[in-house]
Amino acid sequence: MLKLTAEGCAARRQRLCAAVEADLFVLTHPHHILYFSGVWLSSLSLGSAGAHALLIDRDGSCALLTHAMMASQARAGFADEVVVYPSYSPEPPSLSSADPYGAFVGALNRQIEDRAAQTIGYERGGLPDGIAAVRRIDLNATLRALRRRKDDDELALIRQAVSAVEAGHAALRAAIRPGITEIDAFIAAQDAITRAISGPVHMLGDFVSGPRAEYVGGPPTTRALLPGDVMIADIFPVIAGYRADFTATIAVGGGLSAVQQRLDDALHDALAAGESVLRAGTRAADVYHAVRHALDTHGFGAHFPHHAGHGIGLGHPEPPYFVPDSDERLVAGDVVTLEPGAYGSGFAGRIEHNYLITETGAERLTNHVTRMAG
């Protein structure tokens, strides 16, 4: 499985230091610990629980403050130093602090004091209670802007996720037939994705069929697929901390009713309309309106209840958001989705692709089958 690189993490730390005048940056969100140090606090790891902080000094060097259960994974990342605060340790078994959070806060205060930091850059809502009183700078807007322009190592992880999810979509489509359940289809996709990356994934997505598809999305159930149904499969697992997120709607039994065929054509025209305006400088609201106008032309606009797409990367969704009131503008390096959909009594469907924004257009990253009848 691919991971972020030491060079990429170091470059991102330098950009943060250049963007904000602070003596020290204290980051506690798992996305930012990964982004700047390469250490993934995966939900699939016991060590991810508890408190962690990445401290980035003015020169771009960094230290990761963590506990014993995460220490070995932390040392495999790109922090210049790993500091372990007192906590529970299974090997050798010990309980060096009955108050691990208090121990974390104390250790973090000592790190701040040792650096004589007068000004700290922090994530709003991320700095724990009990931190020494120093001047603080909110980093949220800066971090949002930095994260939008994906580096080469980030793009490699997103492409890795795309390849795995494409395998999942192909396996799910091959498994779809009358009589299987939504959970059966989910398992087919999960198995293919897991095998594609040779490791476990945090599997997320919408897997809904028949009347359930008319309500946009949801987790898989034991509902059995019937001839004439469609199944919406919107698959967005977390792989090495990054996302791909793309969707197909699949006809059960292969044939399409007249309304399903009209909807299938409308969704693809809406996708093409959105693609036609994807380039650096385009206003996010204009992407939404391009997609919505195409659906209106086919008579499905009033049945389009959600965004027309969004950014992906460490988060899902993340900026930019393709909604009617967004003045955000696309930048080269954004990775975004387009996802036209329409839902109503007797019909439902959504398709979605992922794109890398360039100065002159967009590169489509995904190549799965999106036609309902395949």
**CATH architecture heading of the largest domain:** Alpha-Beta Complex
Mean pLDDT: 96
- Relevant CATH superfamily of the largest domain: Creatinase/methionine aminopeptidase superfamily
Looking at the structure, the CATH topology of the largest domain is Creatine Amidinohydrolase
Multimeric status of the protein: single chain
Which segments are poorly predicted (pLDDT under 50) over 5 or more consecutive residues? none
Q: What is the global morphology?
A: globular
Number of E-state strands? 20
Helix content: 25-40%
> Strand-residue fraction?
15-25%
Instruction: State the helix count.
Output: 9
Protein described:
The chain is an alpha+beta fold and 374 residues long. The chain has 2 domains: 6-146, Creatine Amidinohydrolase, Chain A, domain 1; 152-364, Creatine Amidinohydrolase (Alpha-Beta Complex). It has helices spanning 6-19, 30-37, 68-75, 100-114, 140-148, 152-175, 182-197, 258-275, 284-297; strands at 24-27, 53-57, 62-66, 81-84, 88-90, 93-95, 119-122, 135-138, 205-209, 230-235, 238-239, 242-243, 246-251, 310-311, 318-321, 335-338, 341-344, 347-350, 353-357, 362-364.
Short précis:
The protein has 374 residues and is α+β, with helices and mostly antiparallel strands. It has helices spanning 6-19, 30-37, 68-75, 100-114, 140-148, 152-175, 182-197, 258-275, 284-297; strands spanning 24-27, 53-57, 62-66, 81-84, 88-90, 93-95, 119-122, 135-138, 205-209, 230-235, 238-239, 242-243, 246-251, 310-311, 318-321, 335-338, 341-344, 347-350, 353-357, 362-364.
